[in-house]
Design brief:
alpha/beta; Maf protein; globular; 7 strands; 7-stranded mixed β-sheet
């Protein structure tokens, strides 16, 4: 089954490809020579995910899915949330985003947080959403060389290692994206 992932993020694509069983062919927007940025102007993670999936389905008419992910920090009332990728500005700098988050948490004792991914699947008959959440905390300093985004400062609950200290296979045992994708794959296998 060929399915389109409404993303240009190669690291996300690699993460998802590593979880797909045989029989699935995954292409992202770069594979389709689409370099246009899909707007992420919706006020929720769910809304952004749905908008991106609809945009790609309307353009190609192929089954597709999109994800949107946010890091929600309790002491910051859920920030950066839907604005996680652009928390420190439009440039989407992972380092600037982490620096701003650490600055905003400087005087906070509670560093609990959760990653939330919403995947929207869209085809000619339906639009469905699948949600994956992993709880944890923001570490005081960045650790690790793997991953992307906030991975160097996010420690999943019960571990004293960040996502960036894990290889991809280990991260997939805990990750929000892997949890949402498992639900999508369960649905697709029934089709």
């Amino acid at each position: 089954m060929k399915i389109i992932f409404a993303s240009q993020n190669q690291k996300k694509t690699e993460e998802i490809r590593s979880l797909l069983p045989k029989g699935f062919i995954l292409e992202n927007l770069l594979d389709l020579n689409i370099e246009d940025d899909i707007p992420e102007n919706e006020p929720t993670i769910e809304g952004n995910s749905a908008f991106k999936a609809r945009w790609v389905f309307q353009k190609f008419g192929l089954p597709c899915f999109a994800d949107d992910t946010g890091l929600e920090v309790l002491a910051l009332n859920g920030e950066p949330g839907v604005h996680s990728a652009r928390y420190a500005g439009a440039a989407r700098s992972d380092q600037a985003n982490m620096d701003l988050l650490q600055l905003n948490l400087k005087d906070k004792a509670d560093r609990s947080a959760q990653f939330k991914t919403v995947i929207t699947y869209c085809d000619q008959d339906q639009e469905l959403q699948f949600t994956g959440i992993v709880s944890g905390r923001i570490s005081e300093e960045a650790k690790g060389e793997h991953g992307f985004g906030y991975d160097p400062i996010f420690e999943p609950e019960g571990l004293e290692r960040t996502f960036a200290e894990m290889d991809l296979a280990e991260k997939n045992n805990y990750s929000h994206r892997a949890r949402a994708l498992a639900q999508l794959l369960s649905f697709l296998k029934k089709m």
